[in-house]
User: What shape does this take?
Amino acid sequence: MVEEARRPDVVSLVDRLACQAEPLQPVLAARDMTVSASSGPLLREVNLEIPPGGVFAVIGPSGAGKSTLLKSFNRLLELETPPLTLTGEVEFRGRSIHGGGVDPDSLRSRIGMLFQQPIVFPTTIARNVLFGVRHVERLSRLGLTERLEEALERAALWDEVKDRLDAPAIELSVGQQQRLSLARALALRPEVVLMDEPTSALDPRATAAIEDLIRQLAASQTIVLVTHDLAQARRLADRVACVCRRDGVGEVVETGCCGDLFDNPQCRETMEYLDLGEGA
Assistant: This one.
């Protein structure tokens, strides 16, 4: 209720001052990173730092490499068919994610992912939520029960499903399925949640529910959000990176505080993209 009472100009000023404060040690960083397919580079020489906490939005035209950038942060590129190759470096908490001894499954439990379309397995609601936990952790039956309720509570789904946890997850609405997918990621207690256009398949009501969850989660976790919805980026993001194609290859052309980048972009590609996107 206190947040609702704050005037928009006050909120804007507070957010601007917070964004322009001394930057924190990044939780994720790309250093001279290039991602290539057999046909050539998809992303070129990306240098990007993502501070801990809050919402970091990635915007830009379709096909520029935003999803590829997101997947580079938790080694999902290795699961592409055929796998994509990465040169340069990606760091999580200051350490290379490709270093010796880094287990990809453990890394993905700390850096979760929510995709554009809900991913629902042909089993019960409870088993869907606990799928990853059962794979990477050893918990007692009581521990699993507690983790299940915690994850569904954080995904704002517990009250809707607590009396039918053994029902098929496919029976849920699309909006509920997306929150179920989020609960699966949250059950692993990740430090970062990557979100690839998580509301693009949802109706306005379900979209509002996911946006509310993003705001809540950003108070304790880092959210990296790819979105084509510029109004959504304005509503949610603290910082923004714009990915555009130069000579046919994706590049991070500009980064900055959300208000600064939208209101005073410095790069021609960013200006053109914002003019097209906000004029739609």
Summary: The domain at 2-278 is CATH 3.40.50.300 (Rossmann fold). The chain has one domain: 2-278. Residues 59 and 249 are 15 Å apart (CA to CA). Strands lie at 28-37, 40-50, 54-59, 85-92, 95-96, 111-114, 192-196, 222-226, 239-246, 249-257.
